[in-house]
């Protein structure tokens, strides 16, 4: 009997649901004991019923084995998978007097394109392996080609070497023959050239000596120039820089000392001025005091006469102060129709003068004999 067990959407060990269809060839065993088992199991049943029992048994084992394998194991090694199903299911169907002649996997597929993804991966891997194989083949071919070229070059080198050896031997023989012919010529030429070389060497030695002397002179000149340059640099750069630095330092020190001395001098000046002013004030004060003391003594000694002398001494100053505005006057015009009117005015002014002085100083000018004469009508008229 040919059976086609089928398990749909069975989860593998990785949880991927796949559908597997197989083809099994089975028959009833002919051994008496096993035939008795078959008769016991299937007598009275139709062929369809017998197929159904065996098919369900195979599908059950197939489902159980699918749950222990991965998709890769099932897909990549179908023979091993079919052999495993056959080995697991054979004892059970054997107890029913049935023998599994063959079991193969017909189809494996899924609804989530898992197997197609594996196919793409496998295809990429195969393509990669193919590319690697091509590269390795090209590499091997290149290596072999290089080896062949090397062998060819080795053979060519050997041949070229032999040709060169033959040519070298020929040239050596020619050279040997030519050497014998040209020896005498060479000896004569060599003698000439040797003598010429000796003369040339002497000339060259003299030239070298001249060059050495010139070079020594040039070196001395350069040394002098270097010394001159150094001195020039020292004179034009270093010394002015040092002088400028020293100058700036001295100027700074001078400014510092100047400021200090100026401040000291200013302080001394202020002190001296203060002392001088104090001494001057003291001297003036003493002089004024002595003057006042002497005046007081004179006043005390002479009494009214001293006072009168002071008044007389002050009168010119008073008159000068009073007459100061009149000094700027060119002329005074008194408008009066009578000549005696002018005289009267002057007399009145002179008559009022002693009264004014007495009011200011307390000195009565009318009691002084000289002034008494000046205040008489005759003196006024004469004035």
TrEMBL record:
Keywords: Coiled coil, Endosome, Membrane. CDD domains: SPFH_flotillin (cd03399). Residues 38-220 form the Band domain. GO terms for molecular function: protease binding. It holds the Pfam family Flot. It is found in: Membrane; Endosome. It comes from the Eukaryota. GO terms for cellular component: endosome; flotillin complex. Residues 167-239 form a coiled coil. SUPFAM superfamilies: Band 7/SPFH domain (SSF117892). One of its GO terms (biological process) is protein localization to plasma membrane. Heterooligomeric complex. Belongs to the band 7/mec-2 family. Flotillin subfamily. This is Flotillin. It comes from Pundamilia nyererei.
């Amino acid at each position: 009997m040919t059976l086609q067990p089928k398990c749909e959407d069975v989860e593998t060990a990785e949880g991927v649901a796949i559908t597997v269809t197989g083809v099994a060839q089975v028959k009833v065993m002919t051994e008496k004991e096993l035939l008795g088992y078959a008769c016991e199991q299937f007598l009275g049943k139709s062929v369809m019923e017998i197929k159904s029992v065996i098919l369900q048994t195979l599908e059950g084992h197939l489902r159980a084995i699918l749950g222990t394998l991965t998709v890769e194991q099932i897909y990549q090694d179908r023979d091993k998978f079919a052999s495993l199903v056959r080995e697991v299911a054979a004892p059970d169907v054997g107890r029913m007097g049935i023998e599994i002649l063959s079991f193969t996997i017909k189809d494996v597929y899924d609804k989530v394109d898992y197997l197609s993804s594996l196919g793409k991966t496998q295809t990429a891997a195969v393509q990669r392996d193919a590319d690697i194989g091509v590269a390795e083949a090209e590499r091997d071919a290149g290596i072999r080609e290089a080896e062949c070229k090397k062998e060819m070059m080795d053979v060519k080198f050997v041949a070229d070497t032999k040709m060169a050896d033959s040519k070298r031997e020929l040239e050596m023989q020619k050279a040997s023959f030519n050497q014998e012919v040209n020896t005498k010529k060479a000896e004569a030429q060599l003698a000439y050239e040797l003598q010429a070389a000796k003369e040339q060497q002497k000339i060259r030695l003299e030239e070298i000596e001249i060059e050495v002397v010139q070079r020594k002179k040039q070196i001395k000149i350069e040394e002098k120039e270097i010394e001159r340059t150094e001195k020039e640099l020292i004179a034009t750069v270093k010394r002015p820089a040092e002088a400028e630095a020293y100058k700036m330092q001295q100027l700074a020190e001078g400014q510092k000392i100047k400021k200090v001395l100026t401040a000291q001098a200013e302080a001394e000046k202020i002190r001296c001025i203060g002392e001088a002013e104090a001494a001057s004030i003291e001297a003036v004060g003493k002089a004024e005091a002595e003057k006042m003391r002497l005046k007081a003594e004179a006043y005390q000694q002479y009494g009214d006469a001293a006072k009168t002398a002071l008044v007389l001494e002050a009168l010119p100053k008073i008159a000068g102060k009073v007459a100061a505005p009149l000094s700027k006057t060119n002329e005074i015009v008194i408008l009066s129709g009578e000549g005696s009117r002018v005289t009267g005015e002057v007399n009145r002014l002179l008559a009022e003068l002693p009264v004014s002085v007495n009011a200011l100083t307390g000195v009565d000018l009318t009691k002084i004999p000289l002034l008494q004469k000046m205040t008489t009508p005759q003196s006024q008229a004469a004035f």
